[in-house]
């Protein structure tokens, strides 16, 4: 296949739902890794407002670049909402949980508190993002449940993996690996959910109609 044909095929694939999901997955996971250049993963209560706002800015900016493919307005507001939401979560008793590891190495409390904290923080984050999505998606309220569900699944898995690896290696770096897995799982779930919500609301069709006017 010639280079122009290959590039054309790649561009066409990236515009598909599968391509959007793959980009969402990679940029969310990648932005978490990039945020580690600015944020040092630590235990509660040392990950607070500053870390939450910085992390939210990095992740929100990366996700916003992908969301531009679907809606410029959503992308524009997604970034400040991510900063504010993560900043407020960081200021709360939860802390910036996306960059935080539990103190205990015991598997059971890590899973239990991962489920509880994941549900709570995911819902809070979802509420903030709902304010952006509700202007463009008819079923935007479902995003709160989706975000809560994604974090309820991803966070305990990540904390469990981090705890097991840390006990085996005695290295705190294991917690970073666990959190990376958590972000990957959350990105996979939310990416699928965004595409599903678009189909329910006809967002892609609406944008296509506007572009032809």
Spans of 5+ residues with little confidence (pLDDT < 50)? 205-213
Report the principal-axis shape: globular
Structural class: mainly alpha
Order of H and E elements: HHEHHEHHHH
- Report mean pLDDT, rounded to a whole number: 90
Short description:
The chain crosses the membrane at residues 21-41, 47-67, 74-99, 111-133, 140-165, 177-197. The chain is mainly alpha-helical.
Walk me through what this model shows.
By secondary structure, this protein is an all-alpha fold. It has one domain (about 5-205). The protein is built from eight helices and two strands. It has helices at about 5-15, 15-35, 50-65, 70-90, 105-135, 140-170, 175-200, 205-210, and strands spanning about 40-45, 100. A two-stranded parallel ribbon has the order 1-2. Helix 3 (about 50-65) runs antiparallel to helix 4, helix 4 crosses helix 5 (about 105-135) and helix 6 packs antiparallel against helix 7 (about 175-200). The chain is globular. It starts with a helix and ends with a helix. Mean pLDDT is about 90; it is low at about 205-213. Keywords: Membrane, Transmembrane, Transmembrane helix.
């Amino acid at each position: 296949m010639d280079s122009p044909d290959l590039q054309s095929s790649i561009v066409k694939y990236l515009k598909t739902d599968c391509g959007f999901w793959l980009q969402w997955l990679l940029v969310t996971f990648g932005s978490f890794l990039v945020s580690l250049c600015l944020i040092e993963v630590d235990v509660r209560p040392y990950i607070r407002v500053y870390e939450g706002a910085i992390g939210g800015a990095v992740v929100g900016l990366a996700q916003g670049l992908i969301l531009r493919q679907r809606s410029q307005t959503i992308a524009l507001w997604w970034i400040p909402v991510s900063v504010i939401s993560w900043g407020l979560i960081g200021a709360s008793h939860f802390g910036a949980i996306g960059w935080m590891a539990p103190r205990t190495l015991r598997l059971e409390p890590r899973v239990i508190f991962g489920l509880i904290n994941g549900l709570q923080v995911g819902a809070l984050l979802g509420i903030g993002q709902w304010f952006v999505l509700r202007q463009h998606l008819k079923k935007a309220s479902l995003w709160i449940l989706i975000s809560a569900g994604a974090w309820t699944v991803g966070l305990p898995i990540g904390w469990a993996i981090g705890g097991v690896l840390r006990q085996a290696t005695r290295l705190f770096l294991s917690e970073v690996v666990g959190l990376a897995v958590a972000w990957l799982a959350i990105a996979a779930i939310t990416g699928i959910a965004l595409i599903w919500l678009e189909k329910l609301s006809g967002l892609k069709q609406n944008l296509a109609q506007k572009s032809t006017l």
